[in-house]
């Protein structure tokens, strides 16, 4: 009971250990100094509480004759504060780890950029330097052919050999051209970026592909009621040329080819869709669709570089390309242009 504590020595009330801890504060209070502090207070053998104590000196006639002690149990507040402090320490440690990881990513990204630049420069230089030798080979073949007599040139074996030699030269020239195109994408940035009407660029592509479209008997369904794109004209034309050309090239022999070209706005993107009812692709080989020099339909002539170029063009501009396909049904490509690339 409180009245039982009156007149008891302080060490008997609070215990010798606690008294030893608070004795310096008591001395300061008896010297006339207001004191505020927090300390631990054992209750029983296992329970520990935290208290906030204020000593207010009792000054009479200029002399400190004692002090008033105001005590509050702040165990819950101390526990909550320590949890906050612990979380702050954990957050700081995590922030340090994230900063270190980010620094590593920045360094790796810079190294990757340098590697890509070196690779683009190598491809560009190699493709340029290989043009002269292959042209020399082609010239030597023609010179040798002129030196052959009419009898030799007329032999079937000679004609077959020359056909294979010229075919190899032409394929090599095409590969060099493809490598040059890959290197061009890596070296170009925004030289010919302009505000483009997609339907106007598509009309140019349709004219370029008119013979193939007519030969295939393909029907085009176009719905391009969309804002202009702020994009590279050369690259947009290449994207449309590859996607439309593939839709015609890889048509099904079982039905007339039909190609649907449309656009819509979706979130942060303007989406260009090219869908066909052609041969379709096995999506289990999706990793090959945009890979360099990979082809899923070997019976049709091609180099396996077109979709790689398309993907790199759109990703260099901050967009992406997706594909859905089913064998025997058709293929749909969706090209996502960032809305930040739309003309105001």
UniProtKB/TrEMBL annotation:
Alphabetized Pfam families for the sequence: HATPase_c (PF02518), PAS_4 (PF08448)
Keywords from the named record: Coiled coil, Kinase, Phosphoprotein, Transferase
The answer to keyword Transmembrane helix applying to this record is no
PROSITE patterns with a match to the protein in the record: HIS_KIN
As recorded in UniProt, its EC number(s) are 2.7.13.3
Single GO molecular-function term?
phosphorelay sensor kinase activity
Q: What's the catalysed reaction?
A: ATP + protein L-histidine = ADP + protein N-phospho-L-histidine
Q: Which SMART domains match?
A: HATPase_c, HisKA
Name listed for the protein in its UniProt record: histidine kinase
What lineage does the source organism belong to?
A: Bacteria, Pseudomonadati, Bacteroidota, Sphingobacteriia, Sphingobacteriales
